[in-house]
Design goal:
Structural class: alpha/beta
Radius of gyration: 25 Å
Number of strands: 15
Distance between the termini: 69 Å
């Protein structure tokens, strides 16, 4: 069926680790229940367009269609592994289930089912020999990418332990009078092994491996402490915006954590704004929606980041009461020369205003961009024309100068 849709995808050969031991020690009846439970959990973690089948006793084949990026394969595997992070309860006996997974990419590693299954089986066997509970790709160069993914994942965990993350602030200004109105909190990593990677790559791996919750907690605590410090020295409050990942906003614990922060650290919700991307809105889970509603009623604000780069419709904007819309740097870059971008920015601003949203332009770097945005009645701006991201000390100076 892959031929139909351009034929890009992946075939996963999934083998339950140590299944023989389960059968030998706990008997075939338990073995059967384990297989049923595994099939069920595997089914729960795949998309409706994927195909799952049992291949042999304890082996499964999963065909994922329309895969174009390696990252998408990691996402699928991470999802499968998440389903099994909790042990399986078989009549009171708790079993931890892990898999060895061999991955063949279609069409790179073969075209017909037989040859794909063979190569994926070999890759799976390599995982078994390397201590199980993992996955490997058929081609060595693919394995290298997969190893890099795990290297980033390990380094991120290390960096958190060693406090090798810091926050810098990208100030935001009122376009009318140049006042500092807020700042975006940006995560930076000082750990030697990953400090040169783009931060969104680190975030992406962190999302896929669940480390994102610890990073989120770090950002929140750092920003809360900073806001408290500014209150102590009587700096006029500004609003700090924090980027929220898709995983965080869809997490049941997130809202509870925020309420805890408000109590523990005397956070004033009006001083914090959460930025979510358009694609997160598209995900549109009930949990995310409840979290947004509940946090907004607690006084936090929400802005939609990089608007125009995804596929979101205006109905999404209407549906979620949001406060602010950020126009992505990619639309600002070509201003004022590019007439299409000018039309997009102009339309976005007037539409946002009609919906009662404030508008921030990101990546403003020249006086001509600034002048055009003024004419288009944008509300706020951030970018090198006004200021580079600054360290907390400089941000404090900036705010004290504003107070003076």
């Amino acid at each position: 069926s892959m031929k139909r849709n351009g034929g890009r995808g992946a075939l996963l050969f999934i083998d339950i680790d140590d299944f023989k031991v389960v059968n030998d020690e706990l008997g075939h009846d338990v073995g059967d229940i384990v297989l049923q439970t595994v099939s069920e959990r595997l089914r729960n973690s795949i998309r409706s367009s994927d195909t799952l089948g049992r291949y042999g006793g304890d082996e499964f084949l999963l065909i994922i269609e329309n895969i174009f990026e390696f990252d998408e394969v990691f996402l699928v595997i991470q999802k499968l592994r998440d389903q099994f992070s909790l042990p399986v309860d078989i009549n009171g006996t708790l079993l931890k289930i892990t898999f060895s997974i061999g991955v063949a990419m279609v069409p790179d590693d073969g075209h017909d089912a037989r040859s794909l299954i063979d190569v994926a089986d070999k890759a799976m066997y390599a995982v078994k020999q390397n201590g199980k509970d993992g996955f490997d790709f058929v081609k060595k160069e693919h394995s290298v990418i997969s190893n890099e993914y795990f290297r980033i994942q390990r380094s991120t965990k290390e960096a958190l332990k060693n406090q090798a993350f810091e926050i810098v602030y990208q100030p935001q200004f009122s376009i009318r009078d140049g006042r500092v109105t807020g700042a975006e909190a940006l995560l930076r990593c000082t750990d030697d092994s990953i400090k040169n990677l783009p931060i969104n790559k680190i975030i992406k791996v962190a999302e896929e491996s669940g480390v994102i919750h610890d990073i989120g907690q770090f950002v929140l605590e750092t920003v809360s402490r900073q806001l408290a410090e500014w209150r102590d020295i009587s700096v006029t409050p500004i609003r700090i915006s924090i980027n929220l990942s898709r995983k965080e906003i869809s997490d049941a614990r997130f809202e509870a954590m925020m309420r805890h922060e408000i109590r523990e650290r005397k956070v004033n919700p009006e001083e914090i704004e959460f930025e979510i991307t358009e694609s997160t809105l598209m995900d549109n889970t009930q949990r995310a929606r409840n979290n947004i509603e509940s946090l907004r009623s607690a006084g936090f604000q929400f802005s939609i980041d990089d608007f125009g780069t995804g596929y979101s419709s205006l109905s999404n904007l209407k549906e979620y009461n949001l406060d602010k819309l950020k126009i992505d740097k990619s639309f600002i870059d070509a201003l004022p020369a590019d007439e299409n971008d000018q039309a997009i920015v102009s339309a976005t601003i007037s539409m946002a205003k009609k919906l009662g949203l404030r508008v921030v332009a990101e990546g403003v770097e020249t006086s001509t961009q600034d002048a055009l945005l003024k004419t288009l009645e944008c509300d706020e701006v951030q970018g090198y024309f006004y200021s580079h991201p600054v360290h907390p000390g400089e941000m404090t100076q900036m705010l004290m100068a504003r107070n003076a």
